[in-house]
Amino acid sequence: MPLYTCLMSFSCTTCLLPCQDMINIFFLTIILLHSVGPGVHGCVPQQNCSECMKSPGCAWCKHKDFLKAGESSERRCDTAQSLITRGCEKVDLMNPLPDYTHLKNQKLSSDMDTVVQLSPQNLHVKLRIGVPIEFNVSFKRAEGYPIDLYYLMDLSFSMKDDLNMIKNLGEDILKTLRKNTKHVRIGFGSFVDKVALPYVSQLKAKKKDPCPSRLDICQPAFSFQNILALTRDAAEFKRMVSKQSISGNLDSPEAGFDAIMQAAVCQDVIGWANVTRILVYTSDDTFHFAGDGSLAGIFEPHDGRCHLNGSGFYDGTKYDYPSVGHLARVLSSNNIQLIFAVTEDSVSAYHALSKLIPQSVVGVLSNDSSNVVQLISEAYRNLSSTILLEHQGTPSGLEVTYKSKCASANSSPSWQKRGECMNVKINEQVDFTVRLTSNHCLNGNKEFYLKVQGISETVKVSVETLCDCDCGDKEIDSQHCHYNGTLSCGACSCKEGHLGQKCECMQPKDDDVSCYQNNSTQLCSGHGICVCGKCVCQGNYRGEFCDCDDSSCARHDNKLCGGNGVCECGKCNCTTTFEGSACQCSTKKDQCMSDDSLLCSGQGTCQCNKCNCNKDFIGEKCSMIPTACQKFKECMTCILEKDKDNHKSCNTSCGSVTPTKSQGPEQYVCVTESISYKVELLNGNIVILYTDLPSTIDKTLVIIGSSVSSIIFIGIAVILVSRLLLELHYRREYSSFLKAQEETDWKDTHNPLFQDATTTIMNPLHIQDG
After folding, report:
1. Model confidence at 32, in pLDDT bands (50, 70, 90)?
2. CATH number for the domain including 563?
3. Is 282:173 a contact under the CB 8 Å cutoff?
4. Pairing mode, if any, of strands 446-452 and 458-465?
5. pTM value?
6. Which residues pair with 572 in a beta bridge?
7. Cα–Cα–Cα angle for 325, 329, 331, nearest 5°?
8. Residue 190 sits in the same domain as residue 135
9. Greatest CA separation found in the chain?
10. Which of 223, 338, 368, 493 could bond 316 through an S-S bridge, CB–CB 3.0 to 4.6 Å?
11. What number is the average pLDDT over the span 573-584?
12. Do residues 262 and 397 both lie within one domain?
């Protein structure tokens, strides 16, 4: 069966396998041809308007008489500029552009009655496939926005000191948070572990009192209990917490994940309002997670629902512990920000956990929780200063990227997977540019949401793709189509058995020999189909037999005909100032002219406005002689000997160059023995100037002499300065001595305590008369 018959039949049953192979080859050829199109035209032409709208950069001309005789319908599909250049009026141009409309766009406001932190709130976007569209989203955290804080505490026995401390800190927590807002509520809940082995002892006495010491009294273990729903009453917080007593379990990890899950999903019981929601989790140990429940024979995954009984207790023996991913999704969907207040021993584990849970921070808790107020305050500031804009529920095939414009220096210059700003102050506005790109047509309008982590406000985005054409000209059995087809968007869709641009001819039974070139065995040279005895070419091919391709010319610098000519039937037709197979060669010679107005300094030829230097010359304009000093060293040595012997000839070593001696002495670039010389190109000829070398001084003696002189000079200077300072010191000391001597007053005074010495001598042999 002929190829065009097979193509026009639209029925595989009427085609034999060879014909199918021909169809595959045909469409593969078309695809290959089209793959060149975007690089040249910016559009891959399509056969009908709807497919044209799905091709990025394409427009469609719907005017009935736009095509010339023999042109295929895909010639209606091209870039808008190309279609206009070819004569299509703008009114007949189908080229819907991406656009968006704000459906709700309230201004940012911190008024407590009408708080708006995210703008816009709702918009509708129209997309063309592969053509991105951008819009702006702004966020400003409202000053004084209400806060709900739920305090979740580990009541295992090791937290005994912490419980006593927390009983008196409720008022302090409220006072601290009220520095940020007047509207604060606080609640309290506690957890221990699942009441099953190996977590909690099943002995009757131990179940009743799990304390490890008989000196203490503990309440029975439990998974989670809501003790106080959110309230503004600090006294009520203290009263309810004071009633609590410590509990105990067997292993170190606790049922913290069970507690977080119930605190997040039990919205009505906890009393969460549509405000900033903070969950404070305090513990001195690690946590159980999904899979640990199997140790107690608990295999059913957690269903993510609220299971508190009338007393606020959660029985954790039915469901396994939640997974980290499940917990992260629940917290994010309920806009709850998590603060881990944990002791130093387990802080590393919670840092790793925090990386997996958005809008969570970790603080180091003292052993008795005495710093919990300060910790909550710092953690709240950290959470509030980080703004993360993300998308939720995006339809398949839609790509969303962000650029962040932050007040600080951490704005993102490139497109990111989410918007992110750090160190944002309260009441400070940040802006994000959101880019949407669709890679295929969406089935109707699709919706997704943009939201800032930790707040409930969202931006609702509805998206539709512009993939259909509503030209408004549909005519069945149209006169324009010779009553043999339907007119739509300017093109005829022919009935079976009819062919042609306007359905003007009948489908032949055999191949039309008029579509074969000379002795060719390929219909329309393999680049088109035969319609009404004429070739209808595909892609960039034209001509009577589609044998002419205006995109197959040689390229230069990745440009067709180097950008300096027009491709006509595979051959470049260059402009007047270019030549060559790819018009890559300029016929000008201005870049070859040297400063002395010689072409390539007289030492080369100018080709394509570039110098092609002769041997022994280099440079952009052939003005440089490589290794000139070495090349003419033998010549200069001969000249030096000739100066001593006038009969010596240097024609062999110097050739046609005659060195000239200049007044000296002088130091040129090249040096040999007692002369220096330089080699230059002047008016196309090599010129050598040489002269005697300046007399030299022995640098070694200079260095040694200067070094010794410097040392002697410095030594003498040091001796003189030190002797001068010493002399000044002596003079000051002598002057001080004389002054002290003058001020001394020598007076004769009698000391009353002093008695002169007396001596009494007695002769033992002398006996005094009685």
Report:
1. very low
2. 2.10.25.10
3. no
4. antiparallel
5. 0.56
6. 567
7. 115
8. no
9. 192
10. 223
11. 89
12. no
CA–CA dist 741, 153 (Å, integer): 85
Is the predicted pLDDT of residue 16 greater than 50, yes or no? no
In the chain, the percentage of residues whose pLDDT exceeds 90 is 32
Instruction: Kindly report which listed range (285-289, 333-337, 517-521, 763-767) carries the lowest average pLDDT score.
Output: 763-767
- Domain of 261 in residue numbering reads as 147-384
The closest of 637, 676, 480 to 65, measured between CA atoms, is 480
pLDDT tens digits for range 113-123: 788 999 999 99
Is residue 221 located within the same domain as residue 164?
yes
Pull the structure tokens for residue 318: 């039915």
Q: Choose between 483 and 28: higher pLDDT.
A: 483
Single out the residue of 205, 276, 219 nearest to residue 248, CA to CA.
219
Confidence band (pLDDT; 50, 70, 90) for 280? very high
Q: Is residue 633 part of a domain?
A: yes
Cα distance from N-terminal residue to C-terminal residue, the chain: 186
Distance of CA 663 to the CA centre of its chain: 67
Helix H, strand E, coil C: the string for 112-154 is: CCCCECEECCEEEEEEECCECEEEEEEEECCCCCCEEEEEEEE
**Residue (of 377, 346, 341) closest to 361 by Cα position:** 341
Integer Cα distance of 596 and 610 in angstroms: 17
3-state SS string for 67-92: CCCCCCHHHHEECHHHHHHCCCCHHH
Whole-number Å distance between alpha carbons of 141 and 649: 95
pLDDT band of 321, cuts 50, 70, 90: very high
What three-state secondary structure class fits 556?
strand
Query: Is the pLDDT at 290 greater than 80, yes or no?
Result: yes
Residue 660 lies in a domain: yes
Give the containing element (helix H, strand E) for 703: helix 699-742
Closest by Cα among 366, 438, 433 to 406 = 433
CA proximity to 308, closest of 279, 277, 335, 268: 268
Looking at the structure, tell me whether residues 354 and 445 fall in a common domain.
no
| Confidence band, pLDDT 50/70/90 cuts, at residue 95 | very high
- Helix ranges (H only) for 70-203 are 80-85, 160-166, 170-177
Same-domain status, 261 and 335: yes
pLDDT tens by residue, 101-144 = 999 999 998 887 788 999 999 999 999 998 999 999 999 988 87
Which of 319, 354, 384 is the C-terminal boundary of a domain?
384
Using alpha carbons, list the distances in angstroms from residue 195 to 207, 220, 263, 287, 557. 8, 9, 19, 15, 76
Q: What is the 3-state secondary structure (H, E, C) of 582-625?
A: CCCEECCCHHHECCCCCEHHHCEEEECCEEEECCCCECCCCCEC
CA distance 352 to 358: 12
Asked if 569 and 673 sit in the same domain, the reply is: no
Task: Output the pLDDT for position 508.
Answer: 66
Q: What is the mean pLDDT of the chain?
A: 83
Dist CA 215 CA 598 (whole Å): 111
Is 160 found in the same domain as 118?
no
Tally the domains of the chain: 4
| DSSP, residue by residue, 704-769 | HHHHHHHHHHHHHHHHHHHHHHHHHHHHHHHHHHHHHHHT--------TT----------TT----
Range scoring the smallest mean pLDDT among 39-43, 194-198, 353-357, 482-486: 39-43
Per-range mean pLDDT, top range of 394-403, 527-536, 552-561, 631-640: 394-403
Nearest to 600 by CA among 573, 575, 578, 620: 620
Tell me the CATH number at 347: 3.40.50.410
CB 187 within 8 A of CB 279: no
- Taking the C-alpha atoms of residue 221 and residue 208, their distance in angstroms, rounded to an integer, is 8
560 class by beta-carbon count within 10 Å (0-12 exposed, 13-18 middle, 19+ buried): buried
Q: Are residues 412 and 315 in the same domain?
A: no
